[in-house]
Structures are given as structure tokens and as C-alpha cells.
Fold this sequence. Notes:
This protein is mainly β and 361 residues long. It is built from no helices and 28 strands. 0% of the residues lie in helices and 47% in strands.
Amino acid sequence: MKRIIFLLALGVFYQCSENSEPVPSPPTPTLENTEAVVVATPNKSTLRNIHFINSKVGFIAGGTAAAVKDEQSASILKTTDGGQTWSAIYSKVEGFYCTAITSLSESTLMATTNQNFILKTEDGGNSWKKVEVAASSFYMADIHFSDVTTGYIAGSIGSTGVLLQSTDGGATWNTLVDNSQPESILKNNVLNKITSLDNGATLLVVGGTFQEGVVLRSENAGATWELLAVAPGIVLKDIKLSETTGYAVGHNGQVSSTEKGAMYATADKGKTWTLVDTGFDNKLNSLAQLGNNIVVVGDNHNNDFVHPELILLSTDAGTTWARVPHELVVAGWESVAFIEDNHLLAVGYNGNALHVEIKNP
């Protein structure tokens, strides 16, 4: 159980450490131009990843990661009204859970799992089949398609990263990077998210360890890779890019007074990265960007039951940041996505979901 710590003073200033960490500015005010509404979901499992096909149709993948394998459950939810209501289109206790979801069309979707297969539907979620992607189980953290035929799965076995590629629309999968060699760039590199630019020519994968977060970058669709050390003491959990600019977020995995998170920005398609001072040092799990609006979700500090679970928003392309007010405290946000324009959805622990509208942007 967390113990509530009552804050006796406000405006505590952080000092720069010996490793040249920046000095965070005091927390910015809570945003007043947002409206947050709690959204009901069909179950209480952890909601791990959001994917919207358009402004009306969206999906959430998740499930329960029980200690006993046979008790693990998988859940996929669907909305047809822009995230206002959700129905369970896949809900089974079969010894696995879902981790991420993506689509090739309104009818064809694929969801990754913590086993050696993905779930695939070709009728918009009415029926699902298992497609084996590897001979043995591994944790699949993300799935991404750069076009309708070329897709990627990023994940890990223990502390070793796994990166697979499909060239036939997800029907079959093959190893893209060899992780068997001692000098492999996947050793001590847990992979968490993958994205692409330039019609799939540029690939970026984030991950690393709690000692150092890294970015894997390829300019030739994965034929060769560069390993970029980006985040000291922070494993990178998510990445989003738009044209030349983008962001990556992560945290150090701690649950005590030493816990912290960080955000990094790039202006050259991921070649170089700089630390972003949001004014907050909470653990960060996911981010989304649409135009000048950037949203980041994560966790409150240990013992903080005073503030709502962390949602940070910038409406000026990352220049200033503020906390989004809402009523959920213990939510543990896992994923966030824009539905359209000034509407976004955050999901996480215990089936929690929150719709946020940005007013008068």
C-alpha cells in the first residue's frame, strides 16, 4: 500500500546533478481549457494500446497479466462512435494477453500478444484467428506497418530485443535483426515501440535498459542499423514522429523517491535528440501528437493520491506544458491517442479510460 505524504511546501526547485541533468522548472498551472470525461469500458483488465482507424472507429488491446499463466486474459475493445462507448469483441482467458493493435484496413487488424502468435481479424473484429510469428514465446511490445504489405513487430526475450518483419501483409514473419551474436545491437536492449518515415525507408525503434535508453535507426528499411544512446538512466517506452520532428518518452522503472521519467525531442528524423523540460519528472509511458497539440501520459509519483493520474498537454508544439485536470487518481495510464483534432483518449489500469476535449485551442 502506498502511504500518503502530505506536501508541507510548494515550489521546490531541483538542482542540477553531476551528470548535467537539466533543472526542471516549477510545475506549470493546470489547464483550464480542457474537459475530461470518464468513459465506461466493458471490463477491468489493463488497457494497453489504442488504435483509431478514423474519427469514429477505434480499438483498444489489453488484458490481465496474471502471475499464473492459465489465468492470463486477453481483451480487445471496439468503438464505432468516436470512443464514447466501447464493446468487447474479444475476451478470453486462454493464458495470454494482448499488448498492441494496428490495422491494414477497416476490416483487417492484428493484435500482438505476450506469446508466439498474434491475433488477426479480416472482418472488422467479428472473428479472430491466431497467426504464429515465432517458434517460441516472447513479449511482443508493438506492431507497425509502413504499408499494406510491410510490417514489423518489436519485443524482447528477457533483456534481448526481438525485431521481426513481414513482407506479405502479416501472413508470415521473419527475423529482421540477428540477436544471436554477442555483438548484436539487440543485446541488453528491450524493444518497446517502432515507427517509420519516408514510406518505410526510415525506421526507428526505442528501448534500451533502465541504465540507458536507446534508439535504433535505419535509413534503408532495416538493412543496416545505427544504435543511438539517447537517455541516461531512462528506458524509452514510446516514440511518435511527424515528418522531421518527433518525441520519445520513458522512465527509470523505480517506485520510490528515486523514480523519474523524461521526454526527448528530435528535429532531424531521429538522428539527434535533446531533453525536453516539461516541468515534471513523472514516469512517462505514452505520447501522441496532432499538429501543435502534444499529449503525454504516465504515472503519479509514489504516494501521490492528491493529484489526478498524470496527463500532460502542450497546445503550442511543446513550448509550455500543463497537467490536464480530471477525476481519476489511480489510473496508471498505458496509452494515449488523438481521435480527431482536439479530442483524445487515455487508457490504462483497471479498465480506466478518459476522453479529453481541448477547448478554444
